[in-house]
């Protein structure tokens, strides 16, 4: 009793100065800090404060980690998709693309285009003595294949040298596993658009040796795409001296609109022009919806944790009713009491935000190493490539997003303090002391 009397005498004097005591001054901050601490140990938080901080910490940490994974997945998908595929796609209208050399030369001269190449692209069947499956065959020259960002540096077996001279194919690592083949083995490619006979078009089947095996990092591409020399693809698919698509790469894929305008002005023949955003729009729309939905769900977790602040402050107001009444009789204003409990709630929210950020940031940065360690230690297969279409768990930390999560947490914490703080400020000191 003597201890509390001295405490309130000390800080009640500051409150009694009225306008001389600055809002959120020293005594208000000390009271807020005192109300967060345990009664038995001044270095430990109270049970309610501890639960609130824990809930907010887990929510903030989860938000940072999951949003980093979603950002990393989007960045990884874009880099892989536009590493094997181009950024812009030109297809012929009305007439076949027999002038692909001239169109490609015009495209390469356009400012902003870093690389362009013609291609024959056709769906086909591919088989080995062990297995058969579908494939997307792309006919390209050796020089162009060696410049593809998703292929150069990613050849795991064999070589791309003499790709044009020695007729063979380059396949993805997953497709090689499916077919059970290695470099040097032969695979058979089947197309329905074969030779023209008096009885109609007959299917064409031809065996090719595997010259190289690549790993782009994107499961679908490694399972699907087969590269064939351009001249051989033209002959195999009955497209003599013709391409059916020209792909181009730009310096800045996110700013492809400016390049599109230059292409429309530079290419005179009728073409259909699309870019990577249009080709994969549905895919990235789904990814964005998933990202927004996960953010909303995890933000609700933070909001629920903020409700613990409401509950904790209401219990604190009931427990400290006598203390509030003594402060009021010593001159503390309602505004001062209001600010004390707002500071208490904000301190809990800020502590949870800081701890959640301190735990979430390093966890997001080391997520792939953690996944590898858990898989190796417990013989698990977390984040399987055949389901998520990526060979590793991506994580891209956005500091602006981390800051936004912290601000969101503080805003929710502030809103959670308003009602309990208002109740504390409205407490009648006479009624509070009457029941003591």
TrEMBL record:
<keyword id="KW-0472">Membrane</keyword>
<feature type="transmembrane region" description="Helical">
    <location>
        <begin position="294"/>
        <end position="317"/>
    </location>
</feature>
<dbReference type="InterPro" id="IPR003838">
    <property type="entry name" value="ABC3_permease_C"/>
</dbReference>
<feature type="transmembrane region" description="Helical">
    <location>
        <begin position="43"/>
        <end position="70"/>
    </location>
</feature>
<feature type="domain" description="MacB-like periplasmic core">
    <location>
        <begin position="50"/>
        <end position="265"/>
    </location>
</feature>
<dbReference type="InterPro" id="IPR011925">
    <property type="entry name" value="LolCE_TM"/>
</dbReference>
<keyword id="KW-1003">Cell membrane</keyword>
<keyword id="KW-1133">Transmembrane helix</keyword>
<keyword id="KW-0449">Lipoprotein</keyword>
<dbReference type="InterPro" id="IPR025857">
    <property type="entry name" value="MacB_PCD"/>
</dbReference>
<feature type="domain" description="ABC3 transporter permease C-terminal">
    <location>
        <begin position="296"/>
        <end position="429"/>
    </location>
</feature>
<keyword id="KW-0812">Transmembrane</keyword>
<feature type="transmembrane region" description="Helical">
    <location>
        <begin position="338"/>
        <end position="365"/>
    </location>
</feature>
<feature type="transmembrane region" description="Helical">
    <location>
        <begin position="402"/>
        <end position="419"/>
    </location>
</feature>
<dbReference type="Pfam" id="PF12704">
    <property type="entry name" value="MacB_PCD"/>
</dbReference>
<dbReference type="InterPro" id="IPR051447">
    <property type="entry name" value="Lipoprotein-release_system"/>
</dbReference>
<comment type="similarity">
    <text>Belongs to the ABC-4 integral membrane protein family. LolC/E subfamily.</text>
</comment>
<protein>
    <submittedName>
        <fullName>Lipoprotein-releasing ABC transporter permease subunit</fullName>
    </submittedName>
</protein>
<keyword id="KW-0813">Transport</keyword>
<dbReference type="Pfam" id="PF02687">
    <property type="entry name" value="FtsX"/>
</dbReference>
């Amino acid at each position: 009793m003597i201890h509390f009397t001295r405490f309130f005498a000390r800080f009640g004097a500051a409150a009694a100065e009225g306008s001389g005591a600055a809002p959120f001054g020293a005594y208000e901050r000390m009271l807020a800090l005192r109300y967060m601490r345990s009664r038995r140990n001044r270095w430990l938080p109270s049970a309610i404060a501890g639960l609130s901080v824990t809930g907010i910490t887990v929510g903030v940490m989860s938000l940072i980690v999951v949003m980093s994974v979603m950002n990393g997945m989007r960045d990884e998908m874009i880099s892989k998709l536009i590493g094997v595929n181009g950024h812009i796609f030109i297809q012929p209208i009305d007439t076949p693309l027999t002038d692909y050399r001239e169109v490609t030369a015009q495209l390469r001269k356009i400012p902003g285009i870093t690389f362009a190449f013609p291609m024959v692209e056709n769906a086909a069947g591919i088989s080995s003595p062990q297995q058969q499956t579908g494939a997307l065959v792309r006919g390209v020259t050796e020089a162009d294949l060696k410049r593809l960002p998703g292929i150069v540096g990613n050849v795991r077996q064999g070589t791309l040298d003499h790709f044009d001279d020695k007729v063979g194919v380059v396949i993805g690592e997953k497709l090689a596993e499916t077919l059970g083949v290695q470099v040097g083995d032969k695979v058979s490619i089947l197309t329905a658009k074969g030779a023209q006979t008096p009885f109609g078009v007959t299917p064409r089947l031809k065996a090719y040796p595997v010259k190289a095996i690549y790993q782009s990092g994107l499961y679908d591409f490694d399972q699907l795409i087969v590269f064939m020399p351009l001249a051989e693809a033209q002959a195999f698919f009955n497209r003599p001296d013709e391409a059916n698509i020209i792909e181009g790469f730009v310096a800045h894929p996110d700013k492809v609109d400016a390049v599109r305008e230059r292409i429309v002005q530079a290419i005179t023949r009728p073409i259909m022009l699309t870019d990577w955003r249009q080709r994969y729009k549905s895919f990235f729309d789904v990814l964005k919806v998933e990202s927004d939905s996960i953010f909303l769900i995890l933000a609700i977790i933070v909001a629920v944790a903020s409700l613990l602040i409401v509950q904790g402050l209401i219990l604190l107001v009931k427990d400290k009713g006598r203390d509030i009444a003594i402060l009021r009789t010593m001159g503390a204003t309602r505004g001062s009491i209001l600010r004390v409990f707002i500071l208490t709630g904000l301190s809990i929210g800020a502590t949870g935000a800081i701890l959640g950020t301190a735990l979430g940031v390093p966890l997001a940065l080391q997520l792939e190493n953690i996944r590898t360690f858990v898989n190796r230690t417990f013989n698990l297969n977390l984040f399987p490539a055949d389901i998520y279409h990526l060979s590793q768990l991506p994580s891209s930390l956005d500091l602006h997003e981390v800051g936004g999560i912290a601000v969101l947490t503080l805003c929710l914490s502030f809103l959670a303090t308003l009602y309990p703080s208002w109740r504390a400020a409205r407490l009648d000191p006479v009624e509070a002391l009457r029941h003591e």
